[in-house]
């Protein structure tokens, strides 16, 4: 069970890294858009996060449900925003900044809470 937990955690972190990288690669571009790295990253992070919570719940360690709830809501908002804007030729600068901020917020919740 420990190997599964670690594998899910690695995939979860790689998903967040792909989303973050997909956002940062566009930092200097005047026109931003949702790219495949962002789509695949948030999808991977969300699904692996759900799996990780399932494995943690099956174990003996207590799970901080408030932290998981916050991460779930932020991840779901990110997933919806990315998927809703996938086919658009460009996204507003404010949306791009919001996606970047929510991504950083989710990582900060994971690390500092």
Automatic annotation (TrEMBL):
Source species, domain of life: Bacteria
UniProt entry keywords in alphabetical sequence: Membrane, Transmembrane, Transmembrane helix
Record's keyword annotation contains Membrane: yes
Membrane-crossing segments per the record: 6-25, 37-56, 68-86, 93-112
This protein's name: Uncharacterized protein
The organism of origin for this protein: Nocardioides bruguierae
């Amino acid at each position: 069970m420990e190997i599964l937990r670690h594998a899910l955690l690695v995939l979860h972190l790689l998903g967040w890294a792909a989303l973050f990288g997909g956002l940062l690669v566009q930092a200097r571009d005047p026109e931003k858009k949702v790219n495949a790295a962002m789509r695949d990253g948030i999808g991977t992070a969300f699904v692996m996060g759900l799996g990780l919570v399932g494995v943690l719940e099956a174990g003996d360690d207590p799970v901080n449900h408030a932290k998981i709830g916050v991460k779930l809501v932020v991840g779901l908002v990110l997933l919806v925003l990315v998927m809703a804007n996938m086919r658009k030729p460009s996204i507003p600068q404010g949306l791009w900044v919001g996606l970047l901020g929510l991504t950083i917020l989710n990582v900060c919740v994971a690390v500092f809470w």
